[in-house]
Write a structure and sequence with these properties.
alpha/beta; 590 residues; 16 helices; 8-stranded parallel β-barrel
Length: 590
């Protein structure tokens, strides 16, 4: 096993003043920071005071950045650039930082001449070396003439100075689709610094993509495990450092964002085999879902089959679907999920390493000692082994009338907008759930982003409104729902309607369009129309689903049938369902 690399974070990743950022980085466990020049300019602390503050917090200053538009310029511009560099070297000495990041030029003064660039970078490195400093040259993806890491390395090699090396930035390399494997040929001692950022795949200008949409490792689409593996294989021994420009992170609580950032590096190290930590458990199924307050489950064919020995909690079941109804907490919410894992103790150890907040809970005599952690949206996740927790409930003797519900298919949890990407990483790092592609759709009251995370036995749908809603939006705070599985959605809907369940009514326009765009037979569309069952399909199979009206303030239930290997959540139908829910809610309060 390789040595565990140090961790660092660029101050530009976090919100607040420089003081806020340093405190958050230290509290999250980072060993160092990249000091972004704008943060220095905005603080009243002197460089010496910043150095002292970092030392007090246990932080090293590993990089000063950025120094722009230096190389391949005419003599008069070079002279001015060298004067500017000397001032920065003075500043770095006061800060106690030994490496400066020099970005490839975007200046109109720059000349397309590698020999000149190498010569001038050699001169800069020579002056830096006189002060015990180093120059890390980085190819910006939008650099005027140098925009690839291999090109930057050729110039550094030609510059031939011990104090001149390269900085490798995963975004600048992977955003352009460059092959990272040749990194292995760069001598490790010439890789002066490594900056890591993930990102979603977006068809947009690379500069805007970089400045607004970077993510922490594990939150986007880049293969940072392979990328970082190439860098370490080359012999790099510096810190794993995050440089993430993201509009959401830079307006979020810096302490929470810093923990999210650290979790991303812990998970990355684990994927590289650098940590001795239990493997991700990959839950095999839902042990239970918990709702708070009145549930309306009886109308869906569930029976109250148990009462907790010491807590005001009831167990309702139908088939393999088990729902706990808790009398305490915020009414009308999904308060907790129980997930079945092969080894709860190992899963709990992994959760601790991955910085998952533990839940303090009281356990009565003889009750199952379940471990629980808190997800980013506040939902408690209980790590269960089999059905031992059921013994905490005294049987009532009631049996479910049943309506064809067989289990829990998935649970949808609306995420606070600021924590959507954090939630993806959390469930991936802690539980081993793999994310699907992000989907965005126009809902009746604004744009919604959705992403599924799933494993061998459970599926979660993570949703977030992209724009914070105003007074015009429906008064449903962050709706959540539990989706039950059935083998026959039409038969299940028929049974539930006949028993008086309040199911959503879907407009006829939907079914007229469904028949036109899918080519389903009129008889099949007619059956779906009669029972307000929605329909979707992908290349793997079909998806039928229908919904009950809201229970309380936020929760509703869905029943779904998967035919074949359909892998989605019927997101295409979400706007229709949302409008129907809104209409039903308005009708209920008139």
């Amino acid at each position: 096993m390789r040595p565990d690399p140090r961790t660092a974070i660029a101050t530009v990743c976090l919100s607040g003043t420089l003081e806020d950022k340093l405190a958050a980085a230290a509290e999250a466990g980072f060993g160092g920071v990249e000091l972004f020049e704008n943060d220095l300019l905005a603080t009243r602390r002197t460089p010496a005071e910043i150095r002292e503050r970092c030392a007090d917090l246990g932080l090293s200053i590993d990089l000063y950045q950025p120094f722009r538009d230096f190389e391949a310029v005419p003599p008069d511009v070079l002279a001015a650039n060298l004067r500017r560099a000397e001032r920065k070297f003075d500043l770095m000495a006061e800060l106690g930082v030994d490496t400066v990041l020099v970005c490839s030029s975007v200046s109109p003064d720059a000349i397309d001449d590698d020999d000149l660039a190498a010569e001038q970078l050699h001169l800069l490195a020579a002056r830096a070396a006189e002060r015990g400093l180093r120059v890390a040259y980085e190819a910006l993806a939008w650099g005027r003439f140098v925009n690839g890491y291999e090109h930057a390395w050729r110039i550094v090699r030609r510059g031939a100075h011990p104090a001149l090396g390269v900085c490798l930035d995963s975004f600048h390399i992977l955003s352009k689709g460059d092959d990272p494997r040749p990194i292995r040929a760069i001598p490790g001692e010439k890789i002066f610094f490594l900056q890591l950022a993930d990102a979603p795949t977006l068809p947009m200008d690379v500069l805007q993509w970089s400045r607004h949409h970077r993510l922490f490792p594990g939150q986007g689409d880049f293969d940072l495990t392979a990328f970082t593996g190439h860098v370490l294989a080359a012999g790099y021994r510096g810190p794993l450092s995050l440089e993430v420009f993201n509009d959401v992170f830079r307006q979020s609580d810096p302490h929470r964002a810093a923990v999210d950032a650290m979790r991303s590096l812990v998970a990355l190290k684990d994927s590289l085999g650098l940590l001795d930590v239990p493997a991700a458990p990959v839950p095999t199924g839902f042990a239970f879902a918990e709702v708070v307050g009145d549930s309306g489950l009886a109308a869906l064919g569930f029976a109250r089959t148990g009462v907790h020995r010491s807590k005001p909690v009831e167990l309702w079941t139908q088939g393999q679907a088990r729902v706990l109804v808790n009398a305490t907490g915020e009414p009308g919410t999904v308060g907790a999920l129980g997930v079945t894992v092969p080894d709860p103790a190992a899963a709990a150890r992994r959760a601790e390493v991955m910085l998952a907040p533990p839940v303090a809970r009281a356990t009565g005599p003889g009750e199952a000692p379940l471990t629980a952690i808190t997800a980013p949206d506040g939902t408690q996740l209980f790590l269960c082994s089999g059905r031992d927790w059921i013994d905490d409930f005294v049987p009532t003797g009631e049996t479910a009338a049943g309506a064809g519900i067989t289990g829990i298919d998935h649970v949808a949890l609306t995420q606070p907008f600021d924590h959507f990407d954090e939630a993806t990483l959390f469930h991936r790092a802690v539980l081993g759930l793999e994310p699907s592609a992000v989907t965005e759709f126009a809902a009746p009251y604004g744009l919604v982003r959705a992403r599924g995370v799933s494993g061998a036995g459970i599926r979660l749908s993570l949703d977030a409104a992209l724009v914070r809603r105003g007074v015009w939006a429906p008064a449903v705070k962050e709706p959540q729902h539990i989706a039950f599985s059935t083998d026959d959605a039409v038969a299940c809907a028929t049974a539930l309607r006949s028993s008086g369940a309040r199911l959503l009514e879907i407009p006829g326009n939907y079914y007229d369009d469904l028949e036109a765009r899918t080519g389903l037979s009129p008889d099949r569309v007619g059956a779906l129309r009669e029972h307000s069952v929605l329909y979707d399909r992908d290349e793997h199979g079909e998806f039928l689903h229908f919904h009950a009206e809201l229970v309380g303030a936020r929760v509703f239930f869905e029943v779904v049938q998967r035919i074949g290997d359909y892998r989605g959540f019927g997101v295409v139908n979400a706007p229709v369902r949302m409008a129907a829910h809104h209409e039903a809610r308005l009708s209920s309060v008139r």
